[in-house]
Amino acid sequence: MEWKLRIPMIIFVFGIISGIYQLFPSITIFENSYVLRSVQYIGSLAIVIFLLELTGMHEKKISVFFGITLILNGFLFDLFTSLPLTLSSSK
Fold this sequence. Notes:
about 90 residues, mainly alpha, about 5% strand
């Protein structure tokens, strides 16, 4: 059984971008405005997803196992980058 790469790659990108923003909070350009920080985050997601669509990466066929592995890697990257922030703020 095969999947298209589109959905697993989009979920993977959500996890990676979220993890990067949690790991490096100083990359945010707009420190004072929550709305502008959200726009920057959504814009960075949109750029990466647009580039994946533009290159035709979404049309590739992959196995279900690889798709689930890709999704889990995105979730785990997001989880493990948020752990140091959670542990350091509880002290």
